[in-house]
Amino acid sequence: MKVIVVGKSKYRDAFQSALRDAELEPVAVETAAGLKNLPEELPVVLLYDANLSPLIMEEGAAEKAVSVLKPQDAVVFLMDRDEDANPHIEYRVLETASRLASAKRRVTVLLRSCRAPDERFDDLYRIARQKGVTFIRYESLDITENEGIYTVVARDGKLSVSIDTPLLVDCGEKPSWELQEFSDALRLRTYDGGRISGNRWFLNQGATFKRNVRLVDTAALSGDIQRIMPALVKDILALEKPAQEKTAFVDAEKCAFCYTCFRVCPHSALGPDHGAAAMKVNDLLCEACGICVAICPASAIEFKAASPAALGDKPADAASGEPAGAASGDKPTDDTLGNKPAGAAAEDRRRTAEVPKETAGGKLKIFCCENSAFIIAKEALAGTDVKVESVPCGKDIEIEPVPCGGDTDIEPAPCGVNIDIEPVPCGGAVNAAMMANALRSHDRVMVAVCCEDACRHRDGNKRCIKQVERLKSRLDSLGYDSGRLSYVRTGVTMVEIFKEAALKALAGGEMK
Amino acid sequence: MIIGGGLAGCTVAKELSAAGIESCIVETGASIGGKVRGYGCKSDTKCNNCGLCAVGTLWRDVEGDMRVKKLCNARVIDISDAGGVFCVLIQSDGGKIEERFTDIVVATGFEYPAETAGAGYDASEFPRVFTGHALEKLMKDRGADSIFPEAPKSVAFLMCYGSRNLKERAPYCSRVCCAYSTRAAKVIKHYYPDAEVIAFYMDLQAVNPGNYAAELEGRGIRLERCRPADISFDGGRPVIAYEDAEGRKTKSFDYLFLNTGIHPDIPGNTALADITGLRVRSDGFLAYVKPPEKTGVYLAGCAASPMTIVETMASARNAAVALINNAAGGRVR
Amino acid sequence: MIVASQKPVEEIRETLKDYKKVLIAACGTCVTVCLAGGEKEAKELAALLSLSGEQEFKVVTPERQCDAEFLAEFDKDVRQADAVLSMACGAGVQFMAERCAGKPVIPALNTSFLGVNRDVGYWTEMCQGCGNCILEKTGGVCPVARCSKSHFNGPCGGSSNGKCEVDPSIDCGWQLIYDRLKSLNQLHRLYEIIPPRDWSTSRDGGPRKLRRTDVVTEEV
Predict the structure, then answer these.
(1) Does A21 touch chain B (CB under 8 A)?
(2) What is the rounded CA–CA span in Å between residue B30 and residue B38?
(3) Domain coordinates of chain B in residue numbers?
(4) What is the CATH number of domain B123-258?
(5) A378 reaches B (C-beta below 8 A)
(6) Going by CATH, does the domain composed of B2-43+50-111+264-328 fall within 3.30.70.2690?
(7) Cβ of A393 under 8 Å from any chain B Cβ?
(8) At B271, which helix (H) or strand (E)?
(9) What is the C-alpha separation between A135 and A163, in angstroms, rounded?
(10) Overall fold of domain C2-112
(11) For residue A481, what is the nearest residue in chain C, using CA coordinates?
(12) Mean pLDDT, contiguous 10-residue spans, chain B (333 residues)
């Protein structure tokens, strides 16, 4: 299996040979232009050497720099870094500072906050202190330069310290412009500031929103490539199969080729098929979030069962009643609103096609994001006197009552008719048409999405809330009670909050 | 066998199961989930990056997974070598049982201190004092408008309370407290914007990129760098005596949060080290003597050192992957 | 492409109030792309208008409403309805009306301009269909459509920081022309006076028609 290794990193050879040991085939690409014309779904590893001062990164560089100084000159390390993704930079700074201090240099380290990742930091810190390195914590800093001498004034509340030094080592990371180029070429959704990441940076540093692209920060490894290889290789091999049991699929006949889905897909899984004059989903990049399905103005995208077949084959059409591109002869007829007939919809609940009236019950319908609300929905409503029915989504969602490690006991929930819960892969998979349709069969509709910045599909939760707000204002202009429609943001443990929102929605009010 | 059915243990079990490997979780508690199952997401309206969502449906998945045997209310008594496999004696509800395993994963986690260091009292007797575990429960059980039974006017956080202190048995940084307590502080300030929220700290980790102290102060959380000297009680309300650059001060609060940190279960770890061939570090956590590929004993999670939720899952994954690779390549002991 | 936007929903409801069975005809081309009148919007509108329970709605989506063959597919549905709500642009609405003898055809959209898609959800006017294109003289920026006053020979003098005095969110068309000619090293073209034009090629000459006689062999 080919793996593209991007970047001119000094660790590239070691990395490539580690990949070969794992029976993968590394292909080196040095420039962003080199990424053109490669299949979109090939695994890509961006080897990123943090752009740090050579005085802390290169062996002997600091010693060389101080050798031209006078004996009484101080050396100041400025550990004031906005980027805190890489605590290992602090190790280097401490090691370098200790070495210089051992050679009888006056060394001061200025830092704003202290990150203590593990016992190694504590050890290095202790050693540095023993060797005589001075650590000064500051709240604000003023640095002026005059003929090669830096005057650093560090203030912390009422205290202030002034140091003059000819050697001020900035330990911050300089942004790498190349990263931006690669990010554009790979169509990654960058986090602000040009860091390649997503709003889920803290869950898996190195992961991007595109499942085949990973960032490996070599400074963090300190050359120890082997530490990450087993898990990385496993992730790379997993790229041979689609991420989920289903993927999005574009009906080329209905597609208006407007590029809307292409632009909004958080995983960059859609690409143009110019031959068909339509968009096409790359099965191996699709995460089945449903955002494209919801937003397509031509209703041309729906979920189909994913097949491990290589890109280019039509996926095995297990879920829907009609093969894509079928002749119109045997098409099952849609109902008056253009919805698929009840049978087809029941087979694949994931379509944004509206829930047929026949299966709707209850007074409140809650669309629950599977990543947060749906996990707690049943538990939240168990023990209340509302009756809850959950629409099966292909996964077994029956929960045996099991005492938690915490103190909550769960009562089994009786099935019934007050509340219908429909799981959705992301809040972004719910559009106004679905909500408006739900209002035809239910008194009230609520959408439960993940908290701000917590969407694992980047902005699906935001999209949903915008749809809710637009629909509410339309309901208002028609003279309907817009309070019938509401939303709530939930995290994976917010049982009480979800319950309050659901009960309030059932009673006709809304949570703010 | 996976000793410990908490976050690390369950993550290992799930990874192994996905690779077709059966496992048996031996858990001393009444169910799997450990401490993290009782933790609460710390977003106010915005995600505060606590990592709980990464746990997702883990508990449910493991509970329903046929490849994972779950022995609750059980503990490992002895492990011996039985010709290349481990013979393990387990004490469970049904008496002592003997099982054989090819590999062992130690994922026993950490403990909460029964006594909060330095205070000399049991915090559970004081309803206005919350330790880490109790803080999590507040975060989990909170409603949309309230966290506490009565709205507080002032709340204090004592950082580094149980750590970084050679005297009180924790000469290391617990790694997680700055993060979880400042997140909780943000949530509390969001619910009660008029309450005074003060964090007394010695060091503050850079929890988020950028100037975290400025970020917190921008949210109205006051940061006091000082050494808290003393805690006393005035009619049930906690009173903090502390020293800062100007001298000694005292202040009383409605609620007090103590960052008691992550502590190793030293007697438990010592006993485990004896029977597994691991060693106990000077700080009480477990470490390898020989590489796990040689011994068949793997370490995952906070049993090895203080870790965040995300790091725990990563460490568990690494252990699982190493185990799977070793199993695939034929075990060599 | 043609850019349009949905009329306020209460206005649509008002125009449909006398009809019991309404056929909603979406359009699969321009108005789908500008998110105004495609199948999805039609379904949402149908659901909203159905809330009262007093009317029946059916949604169909011809590929376009400006070619008769596409309309022909739905003649039967038109016959069964009391009225047609066309979600096409003004051209489509009228074409449909011509075809649907005796059936009222109501527009759901306000057709606005010929424009381009600058970003998701954002379109700007570019062309007025004046019938006499001089973009070659102005560096590819149209003074008719993009200057608020349609000046032909330079700015009005009211612009400020490149923005039009009529509306500060509008770029001054002549600023754009200047910048573009400069980047092409063609600033000298600004000295070429564009004379007052014969506007009969535009709408001012009456509704226009176009014939390509070379593609038909029968006498017309």
Answers:
(1) no
(2) 13
(3) 2-43+50-111+264-328, 123-258
(4) 3.50.50.60
(5) no
(6) no
(7) no
(8) helix B266-276
(9) 12
(10) Rossmann fold (3.40.50)
(11) C51
(12) 96 94 94 92 88 90 94 93 88 89 94 55 70 89 91 90 58 81 94 94 76 87 80 86 82 89 88 93 90 92 91 91 83 56
